[in-house]
Specification:
492 residues; two-stranded parallel sheet; 6 strands; 23 helices; mainly alpha; single chain
Length: 492
């Protein structure tokens, strides 16, 4: 097992993300040693650490002189291409085994996708339900309906307060890794002092049980809700544990189904949660491996704007964005509606270069690895794949954010004002987005109603929309520092 600089720096990761992964690795190594397994572990600060996977494998071969190399297939394309070169480089057999953190293999997904005109997640999800038997009563979905998403779109009432989150103690290993992260990556984004992640399988299972008992019953109703000062609401916050292997998707789904079968949670909650794991998580991973490497370079809407500096600083008057960014800074997490309909929606409407917003998501979330981040951001957030993943862009005005959150109550902008003084920027940016992308989107069946509304808009209002959007977008980077350096982009 190796900790290498190329993995901690390929994007400027959130401090908590680095500490979470390194601490989990070290805890796992100790668990293996306790089970009597010899572990050759290279820590980040060890003398001689070359900083790369390939060079560390080279050193390990010198130490052990193996007859063959057995590895698990990686989650990211760049690492797989590296591994494909190892056979020739190291002159011995390379055995790449399937990744057991998933319920659908890459080969099975390719077989499902073969010959299809489109790859809608709903069709894949139905197949996975039939294949696994999860939430099925014989040949039929439990309750008679396979997808209960329309039951899961309620805003959070002021009278409902989510339970307090479980806290995990910071032991000696984690404390050491936090110190290491602060020392090696002092300028990276994020508040590491708020670290509260499980870093062992034992604690991850505690987190799962805590979610099932205290949060899952209301997860379905309020999974799309947002609230200031409540970054987690009823969400599981289990994706980081799934994505690094502390939890397995099957046991997570089984736990949710068992809670439904016992009568402790309603069907819409269990189904909505299982759909995220069995459906969406497996689906985006399949799309990633099906479409890479060309998928990453698509830019269907020709978006080129630099990502605004406030995505790093949190310095913006838009209260919804400020809350989502500050939540991310504090916990390396934001739930899917904050990511899609706040930070993502703004990037889409502003025409931000897909590569820049993708780097931001990949760097700042504890659960972000390219196999899951890229399809979500490229397909759902930016519509850069032209509709392969989503049937329409997830563009929305301030009315959606106001309906699904309490953010607007403390904002200097008014979601009811469309243009002019005090107008919510999401309002005029939404209509400007439609105007600018008419040639690419007007024939989309799911966009026809929006374009009919635009076509009936008075010329003076259209002129105001375009003026406000132009003026706003011209000034959003006025406070950008003279120079900001990330791994992928220079800002001067």
């Amino acid at each position: 097992m190796v900790e290498v600089v190329e993995e901690t720096t390929y994007v400027p990761h959130h401090k908590q993300k680095i500490a979470f992964i390194l601490s989990a690795m070290r805890h796992f190594a100790n668990e293996l040693r306790s089970a009597g397994i010899e572990v050759d572990y290279v820590a980040l600060g060890d003398a001689g650490n070359t900083g790369s996977f390939s060079a560390e494998l080279d050193r390990a071969i010198e130490r052990h002189n193996p007859d063959r190399i057995v590895i698990t297939e990686p989650g990211e394309w760049r690492v797989r291409r590296m591994m494909d070169d190892w056979g020739g480089r190291f002159d011995r057999p390379i055995e790449i085994r399937a990744d057991d953190r998933f319920l659908c293999s890459i080969a099975d997904f390719r077989a499902w996708a073969d010959g299809r005109k489109d790859y809608r997640m709903e069709y894949f999800y139905r197949e996975m339900r039939r294949r696994t038997g999860l939430l099925m009563d014989g040949d039929y979905p439990a309750g008679g309906t396979g997808n209960l998403d329309t039951s899961n779109r309620k805003p959070l009432p002021a009278s409902i307060q989510p339970p307090k989150r479980i806290c995990f103690d910071i032991d000696e290993i984690t404390a050491e890794v936090i110190m290491l992260t602060n020392r090696c990556y002092p300028d990276n984004f994020g508040n590491i002092d708020a670290f509260n992640w499980a870093v062992s399988r034992e604690d991850a299972l505690v987190a799962l049980a805590h979610f099932i008992e205290f949060y899952l019953p209301l997860f379905g109703d309020y999974q799309d809700a947002m609230a200031a000062d409540e970054p987690f609401l009823f969400h599981a916050v289990l994706s980081p544990y799934l994505n690094i292997g502390l939890l397995k998707p099957w046991e997570v789904c089984i736990a949710a189904e068992a809670a439904f079968r016992s009568g402790s949670v309603p069907l819409n909650a269990a189904e909505g949660f299982i759909r995220q794991i069995l459906g969406w998580r497996e689906y985006v991973r399949g799309i990633y491996w099906l479409e890479m490497p060309g998928y990453k370079s698509r830019n269907a809407l020709s978006a080129t704007r630099q990502l605004p500096w406030f995505y790093w600083s949190g310095e913006t008057d838009m209260h919804c964005l400020k809350c989502a960014i500050e939540d991310t800074k504090r916990s390396a997490y934001a739930h899917h509606i904050q990511r899609l309909m706040v930070t993502g929606n703004f990037a889409l409407l502003a025409g931000v270069n897909p590569a820049e917003i993708e780097e931001w998501y990949l760097a700042f979330y504890a659960d972000a690895f390219e196999w899951v981040e890229l399809p979500n951001v490229h397909g759902m957030v930016t519509f850069a794949d032209g509709g392969l993943l989503s049937s329409k862009p997830y563009a929305a005005s301030g009315a959606y954010i106001n309906r699904m959150s309490n953010y607007c109550q403390r904002c200097v902008y008014d979601p009811k004002i469309k243009t002019g003084r005090g107008a919510c920027p999401f309002n005029f940016l939404y209509w400007n987005f439609l105007i600018q992308n008419r040639s690419a989107l007007s024939r989309n069946p799911r966009m026809k109603m929006a374009y009919r509304t635009l076509d009936h808009m008075e010329p003076v209002k259209i002129a105001a929309v375009r003026r406000d959007a132009r003026d706003f977008l011209e000034q959003i980077n006025e406070n950008r520092p003279q120079k900001f350096r990330s791994n992928l982009f220079d800002y001067n």
